[in-house]
Amino acid sequence: EVQLLESGGGLVQSGGSLRLSCAASGFPFVGWAMGWVRQAPGKGLEWVSTISGSGSGTYYAGAVKGRFTISRDNSKKTVHLQLNSLRPEDTAVYFCAKFKGLRFENYAFDFWGQGTLVTVSS
Amino acid sequence: QSVLTQPPSVSGVPGQRVTISCTGSSSNIGAGYDVHWYQQLPGTAPKLLIYGDNNRPSGVPDRFSASKSDTSASLAISGLQADDEADYYCQSYDSSLSGSRVFGGGTKLTVL
Predict the structure, then answer these.
(1) B79 to chain A nearest CA, in Å?
(2) Distance CA B36, CA B84 (A)
(3) Chain B contact for A110, CB < 8 A?
(4) Could you say which of A23, B14, B53, B58 has the lowest number of CB atoms within 10 Å?
């Protein structure tokens, strides 16, 4: 059974930093692209970042580029999202998700974690 | 403002068929990229409902189906049930920013 367990969320002041982690189990992990999606309170889903199966490719939404960094440790089956220069508008539940698919552009998020809440105070 | 446009809400009575639209542009759905649909029950994480335009993961009933044409896609739910009440999101890829995944704003389905 695929499981994704996020951790690292919390309350931080504007301009601060947090490091989110996502521990994966139930699938080979190596070779599978992973991503982060966030959901602000009462709002819809917003893609944040993607990392390729090898870790060599990383991609970011415009709203977080230059402030967030995605990485993965294949030996520990873990994905990280480093959040720097946080702003109140980054307040959201951050979901870790696994990708499936044959072609990169057509990947779907087939499994999701339960999310971790990040609250940025002004 | 979401890149993909969905109606904020739809409603139906048990047993009815409802559809949810998802309108994009030439840089996403119109470019031929796959559309995926997710269901988010209240207080839970999203769940993949339809992938690759109209494929259901194991366990998703065939009451759920989807289609795509030009720059739009739609999700159809037939034989509406009370526990279908949820938020539904469409998602695709957008070529305007490398690696960019885009979501619709979400549609709240109410079963009356």
Answers:
(1) 25
(2) 17
(3) yes
(4) B58
